[in-house]
Amino acid sequence: MARVKRGVTSHARHKKVLKLARGYRERNRTVFRVALEKVEKALQYAYRDRRAKKRNFRGLWIQRINAGVRQHGMTYSQFMNGIKHAGIDLDRKVLADLAVREPDAFKVIVDEAQSALAKAVPAAQSSTAQSSPAEVG
Hints:
Helix content is 78%, strand content 0%. The protein is an all-alpha fold. The protein has one domain (22-129): CATH 1.10.1900.20. The chain starts with 6 loop residues before the first helix and ends in a 6-residue tail after the last helix.
């Protein structure tokens, strides 16, 4: 059986890790053992934060929509319910962008949501009033 020398493989692996550790300070970028720990931890942070970024942006979009909607006398939850009843199929990212960059277009959507909500709410109230039993005194 032939002898296997692994110097080339380990050197390539070390180079790969040290390349990922560029920009770190002191021994964190020059010593392989330390750099390996730091690079692994950095990759864990990157994995976690790619998922956290999605949550953070959704929260930001909701805040922007809420701020834009409150200028027109509605709350975020009322607005979302209204656009659902109106059949407007825009996601939060687009709605937030409209609220910030196109306030006039956003106002049209808010008005549509208000009118759809006004039509939907009386129908819901009348159906619950009929189905509730009369109070016995």
